[in-house]
Description:
By secondary structure, the protein is α+β, with helices and mostly antiparallel strands.
Amino acid sequence: MNYLIRVAIISFVVFIVWSIVRRAAQQEAEEQRPVPKLTPEVKQSKMLRCDECGVHFPQEESVQVGKKIFCCEEHKKQALQRLSD
Ligand SMILES: [Zn+2]
């Protein structure tokens, strides 16, 4: 009888440890999943180069004046100011 109780306790402990390890592995897998999802989204948007500072940025963030492209409103102003001087 004593032996059976010991076996039951050991099985229970093994089961608890196993479920903790499994949960930790699942969490790790879920944390790693979003990374490959983000990559195609980044690749979809075309990268442009700012005529003022030379920084590369996504097309949807661009500020355009004629053929010139800028990363922000501030750099558009700076470039236009330089042209007018
Ligand atoms: Zn810029």
